Amino acid sequence: MSLFGSIAALLCLVCAWPLKSEASVHEYTGEKFISKGNAFVVHGGSEGIYSAIPNQNESSIAANGDAYIRFEKITFKRPKELSNFSSVIQAIIFEVDDRETIGGSVYGGQRAVCCTADLAKLGVCSQGEIIHRPSTANPGWPQVFGVSFGVDELTTSLQSRSIQITKTGMYNLYFIHCDPHLKELAVEGKSVWKNPTGYLPGRMAPLLNFYGFMSLAFVILGVFWFSQYARFWKEVLPLQNCITLVITLGMLEMALWYFDYAEFNESGIRPTGTTVWAVTFGTVKRTVSRLIILMVSMGYGVVRPTLGGLSSKVMMLGATFFLASEVLELVENVGAISDLSGKARLFLVLPVAILDAFFILWIFTSLSATLSKLQARRMLAKLDIYRKFTNALAVAVIVSVGWICYELYFKSTDVYNEQWQNAWIIPAFWQVLSFSLLCVICALWAPSQNSMRYAYDASEEFDKDDTMTFIKPSPMATKDVRSPAEVRTLHGANEASNGGLEEDKRE
Hints:
Blueprint: H1 3-15, E1 20-22, E2 25-32, E3 34-36, E4 39-49, E5 68-77, E6 87-95, H2 117-121, E7 143-149, E8 155-158, E9 161-164, E10 169-177, E11 186-194, H3 205-231, H4 238-267, E12 269-271, H5 272-298, H6 311-333, H7 346-376, H8 380-413, H9 425-444, H10 484-506
Antiparallel strand pairs: 1-12, 2-11, 3-4, 4-10, 5-8, 5-9, 5-11, 6-7, 6-10
């Protein structure tokens, strides 16, 4: 399949995506139990939840101050051939700080979730059930709810209930059974997780206000840029048209993210259509931004009229980056349920990171060549703006590398998502950094009455070879080789000519 065919297929997939996706409403559609140690487990969800706010009076039903986890129509099903015995299934909800209260071991041996015969003999638990102890920091937790299959029963249901959250924390839900004979057991139904201010998961909740502020920031930048653009529209460069496109895409992206989070917070159902378009506009903006920076680094529109043979390579790199980024962002955002990021997504991050590194290498290599040629030709106005542009990019790259190191440290030391309240800062930082760089570019290349002095001028002959010839040598004179007789004859003729001239003068 060609590259353009792949892009078309991706756009068709985006347009055909379902209109809605479950998010804070965790839906279970026949998930199978997986063996973990001596237990069989289904992960029901993990979200950061803030404690309930008493006497909260809000016009919105979602933002009424309640915080809870609610079970709705949760049913367990087993095959008919495994219905000739009784068995117990349990649901356990615990805050991440209480994780050590789950499971146990005999005399420091291997830790087990299900109570073994040896532990049962010690009287610390009942064989075949989850081992858990009351939390000393959070009385009444962890909370365990059980349901059992009777003989010949194919289904059993967990009673619908709401568990009120009175302490802020990262909460986890697991469905567990300890019977190795209970194979092919499946769970159906849903659980609803709610924060005091709405249905947004705790990690995402601060992003609602953040995208609101970013939308306002883009509007302010847009007002400045478009006013300058309207005043000096006759002096506008092709580069400034590209910057206008990036600002427009940024305004649309921030607005879509804000409406996506606002609807999610109000209904508990994430609008997939809005999410997909927000992701797509953001990916297009990042791709166009990188291509513009690369083309400017090569001198396009300022010191050279075209990219020549590099155009196809630049477009190929941009299209590849768009595809890799779009897939990564769709996986990260569309249908995201829990406040956990899967390790399986790492292979999607690597191509984007490699392409970004290639962009940076190509940009700074091109900038170095452009600066050298500008300095050699003493184009001082363009040299000054390119030096400022290079400094801004260098600062952005250094800050990016530092933040990546911090992000790796943050994720490596936060294995259990205990720092979930600060996790929103990581995606927010990249938005702030890209917006700051855009502001610097807008300040450097803002439309003005002097814009045309930065435009390409054919008389500057920028693309000619660096070794210029300043003095054109004259053709060498051909030496006359004559015989002595010819020289004497020529000398006599010259004397006669001179004598004639003198005669004329006397007359």
